[in-house]
Structures are given as structure tokens and as C-alpha cells.
Amino acid sequence: MRSQSGEEPAGFLQPSDSEVQGWMDRAFHMAKDALENGEVPVGCLMVFKAEIVGKGRNEVNETKNATRHAEMVALDQVLEWCHLRERDVKEVFKHTVLYVTVEPCIMCAAALRLLNIPLVVYGCKNDRFGGCGSVLDISSDDLPHTGTYFKCISGHRAEEAVEMLKMFYKQENPNAPKPKVRK
Amino acid sequence: MEPDPKRRKGMEYDSWDVVPVLSDEQSQDLKLLDAYAAPIMEKRETSRLVKELATSFPLPDLQHIKRVRACKDKNTSHPLEVIVCLASDVPDQECKGRTGPTLSDLLCSQTFDPRGLGEPFLVQIPASAPLTRPQFERASKHWPTSFHEDKQITSALKGQLFSSSEKAKMQEHMMEAIEAARSGHTLGMDAVGAVVVDPQTGQRLAVAHDCRRGTHPLHHAVMVCVDLVAASQGGGAYQYEKYPACRYYVPDPQVTTSHMDVSALESHSTSDKAKENGQSYICTGYDLYVTREPCVMCAMALVHSRINRVFYGAATADGALGSRYKIHCQKDLNHHFEVYKGVMPQACEELLDSK
Ligand SMILES: [Zn+2]
Ligand SMILES: [Zn+2]
């Protein structure tokens, strides 16, 4: 492992264990809610100095845009939050933590790098698309032209996150009854 | 009068080659293994020797290796040579203090009738099956192997996959991307342009330039293009009215039917099926032209969108379609696509330098 402690942005305080647990509980609550509504069960929160500045759910179906993952939607909300409050986007992202129930995919991991997010806390691994070590390690590879690497804390309620995904993909099976799709 | 930019020197389609970006397995030199071969002194013993060697020294991971080869030197007394075993099959002690093991060293632990076999010599054999003709030709210099040739890769590597009329069309599409890049640049954006085309009809579906220096830091040209294709299909997440050069076209159904051949019909029906299943495979069957190699985010966005092929002009340091990663042929991912570089490289590299 590379030592990353010396390179954290000035003033970025890593959240305490109890804070991490609290935010992850919120993310899991969102994922459960999504599952109950027939949506991809991924919960995703962006937290800036103890405030939720972005929240996302997968919007691939309604936008027909396959890149509208929960993380990308949440990042848009952070940008919106900054614009409304006339906050410096770079400064805010440098102190924003992503809490997400599933490891971000390669695309989202690269997006998080490009925006200089310092820390990602996630639940289970993403064996199909994971960009924080599962398929590629975009989070920590040496990519001088792709933003900055970020730290990961993984494994929080991982089994539960996997279980929700399994239930969702069972629903997706064409032989299973179609879930209702919320507009 | 201004010279026509398309006619500028070095920009005609015969001045550049489309280069396929192959996987590491396809492009690297084959690894070699040390092995012992021996001459077959009596030809009539060949089939028995091969059978017994296969039992005593099976080579299960080397199915591509032809066990017997014709002797290269026509003047030797023996016409054939056979692989006896891998050097790694021989315990180290056997060779100590000598130039190499003798046949009886190799066969000592085997109940084996060495009749007809000469003294062994060291050879190198390819550790894996050749995947491309250049690999096959290099492998054959060491030891004969089988080769299941992918004719498309062979002609792509020779620069013969695309006809000059196809290259002329590529040039038109890349010119459109270059023009979009220039429009973006006049608005203060990075000079990067991208175009999505339906290769079955030749219709352009979306044109975009980089917008990351505008309202959204993630609006790279490819991301904008993907969203514009979604918009052309009734979706889309963003508005780009600030950037008139970023636009989409709703495909003309008449062009689609009149130009479509049987294979096109088939590929369209599979993408329709994917869409009926509610999966958003928005770029199924489509080609992307982009002036510079996409970054990791954009390359993975193209995987998620199920792009068909990507053509780019200039390589980039952290590029994810050849330079730093090869996401288009990354193992474990559920969609792979073809990538070609070197389309109008000069004009595309000039864009990289525009500040
Ligand atoms: Zn993602
Ligand atoms: Zn990009």
C-alpha cells in the first residue's frame, strides 16, 4: 500500500468511525428504498463538512444514457449546490466524501479522480465493473493527467449490499414478474 | 481565396494509416520456453515415439505446439525432430557439470524405448498460441505451431482492412470532429471533438466538442456525445444550448431502410431487442470518431453505452484505449469493442497543441 497520509488536502479531516457508520446507514436506507421501487439498489451520498450536498440514484432508464450512474447524478448535485451558494467547486470537492453501498465502477472512479474527491467509503465489491481494485484500480493507479488518487474504506455491510443486488438481478430476469418503474 | 482545409498537404486520406489497437496478448512478443528436442533417426519409429512421448511427457498447456517438425537443414541424415520434454521437466542435478543432459538422462525415470531417437538438444518453443500473423511468423522461427488466423486482424495490421473509399468517409467524419473541436476552442474549451456515426447508413447521429471548461468539469467531448445520442433517442440528461456545435440528428428512417443490407438488418434487430428489454444500449452498432484518445472515464462510458468501434487521431498519456489501459479489451468487462488509431493524426495532434 502506498502511504497517502502526507498528501491529503490541507484541512481535510477523515471522518470518525461513528460518522462513517451513520452516513453508510443513510446510504443503505436509500439502496433499500430503490430496491423496493424496482430500481438499481445502490445508495449514494456526497458529504461536505457534515452536510449532504449530493444524493444520487441510477437514472439510466429515464435518460437512456448508460452513464447516469448514481455517483454521476450525485456529482451533478454537488455542482448545483456549489452554483446556488457560489461556492468554489474545486474547494468543495476536495473536502467531500462519497458514501456508496457498492464499489464505484471504472467510469465513476475516474470521474471522482477528475474532481479530486479525497475519500470513498463503500460497501461491497463490484466484480463486473469495479474501478477501485476489482477490475481496475483507478482509485490508486499512477495517472498524472487524471486528477488525484483517492483513499477507499471498503467492506461496510458488504453482505447486505450484495444481497440487495442479487435480489434486484433476480427481478430483472425476464421470467420474473416485472418490477414497477418509477418515473 | 483561402485554401480548402480538406486539401491541405498531409491531410489526404492516403497520407495516414488506420492502426488497430490490439490487446497486450495480441501485440506483445510470445514468451518462449526451453525444451529438449531430439532427432528422429529412423523415420518408421516416428508414430510410436510420438505416442510414447505424449504419454511420458504430456504437454497439456502447449496444445498449439506441433510435437514433430521437419528438419530445417535438408543435408542432415535425419528428416524429423521431435520435442522430448520441457527443460523444466528435467531435475536440475541431471545437467550438473555437463554441457547438457543425454537422452538417457531425460528418459531415466520413464519406461521408454528410445529406439530411433538421437541425442537431445536445447530449443525454445512458444509458450502460448500465436494470435496474430506477426506472432505466428516469429513463433515459427523457433518451432512450428498451429495458428487459427483472424483474417480481419491480419489485414488490419497490414493496413488493408479499409478501402480507400472507406478511408475517405472516415476522413469526412474525423473532419467533422476536428471542426467541432475548433468551434469549442473559440469558446475557450479544450480543442477536442467527437462524432457518433451509424456505419450501416453512414448517418451522423451526434457531434460534440469538449465542454469541461464550461459549466461542467466532466463534460468531455465523448461524454457529451453519448448524452446527445441519448437525446436523439428521446432521452438525454443535459441541455447544450450554450454550445451550438454540440448537436444531434434524429436518424432518417428512409436512409436506414434503403441502404441496409441483410447483416445490417440483423444487427439492428439485436439492438432493438436489447432496447425492448429495457436495457439502454444506446450506442449498439455505432462508431465513434474522436480527435484524441479518450480518458478512463470516457472509455468506460463507451463500454457502458456498448459502442461498436472507436477511431481516434492522437494518443494521450493517460489514454484508456491503448496508451495507459486497453479498456476496450479489458478482461472481466462484459462488452468489448474494436479501436483504431492514427486517423488524420497530424490534424488531431495540432489540436492537442492549441492553447
Ligand atoms: Zn459507475
Ligand atoms: Zn474523458
From TrEMBL, chain B:
Stated family: Belongs to the cytidine and deoxycytidylate deaminase family. ADAT3 subfamily.
UniProt-listed InterPro entries: CMP_dCMP_dom, Cytidine_deaminase-like
Keywords: tRNA processing
Gene Ontology biological-process entries: tRNA wobble adenosine to inosine editing
Protein name, entry field: Adenosine deaminase tRNA specific 3
Superkingdom per UniProt: Eukaryota
Example GO molecular function: metal ion binding
CDD domains associated with the record: nucleoside_deaminase
Domain CMP/dCMP-type deaminase: 168-340
Cofactors, names only: Zn(2+)
Classification of source organism: Eukaryota, Metazoa, Chordata, Craniata, Vertebrata
Gene3D superfamilies assigned to the protein according to its UniProt record, in alphabetical order: Cytidine Deaminase, domain 2
One GO CC term on file: nucleus
